[in-house]
Amino acid sequence: MPKTVRSHRILAGRLRGYRIVTSWHDYPAAILGRTEQALLTWFDRHVQIGETWLDVGAHYGYTAIALSRLVGPGGRVFAFEPEVATAGCLGRTRDANRLPQLIVIPLGLADPQTVTLH
After folding, report:
1. What is the CATH number of domain 6-105?
2. Which has the closest alpha carbon to 52: 71, 69, 29, 65?
3. Cα(58)–Cα(94) distance, rounded to whole angstroms?
4. Fewest Cβ atoms closer than 10 Å to its Cβ: which of 6, 36, 45, 54?
5. Given a cut of 60, is residue 6 above it in pLDDT?
């Protein structure tokens, strides 16, 4: 599988047509739209427009995209990703999908830094 990280269009599933910045090597299931199906079904039933959600350990942002789609522009999704390079990919994913409600925070919640959300 190619290891080049770039923007890919998600090919199937609920997030079909959205973009995710990753590689075929790292996250083929996201590119194919075949991951997190039970979780996305749960989100569809429980996430409301305008809400605020946390995505802890956001990785490349598949779940963050799903949450952002459901909360809409009036909501917020705070995506915590401690790997700086992966957080950078997540920021590019946010930009590629025009999701200003998605806030990428490049640290883990177990980090000794203090985080204040307003």
Report:
1. 3.40.50.150
2. 71
3. 12
4. 45
5. yes
For the cut 70, the answer to whether the pLDDT of residue 89 exceeds it is yes
Distance CA 29, CA 16 (A): 12
Pick the closest to residue 66 from 110, 7, 18 (CA basis): 18
* % of the chain residues with pLDDT over 70: 93
Secondary structure of 75-90 in HEC code, one letter for each residue: CEEEEECCCHHHHHHH
| Per-residue pLDDT at 114 exceeds 80 | no
Q: What separation in angstroms does the CA of 38 have from each of 3, 13, 42?
A: 27, 12, 6
Provide mean pLDDT across the span 13-38: 97
Q: Which sequence spans correspond to the domains of the chain?
A: 6-105
Residue with tokens 């990703």: 81
H helix runs in 1-118, sequence order = 28-32, 37-46, 62-71, 84-96
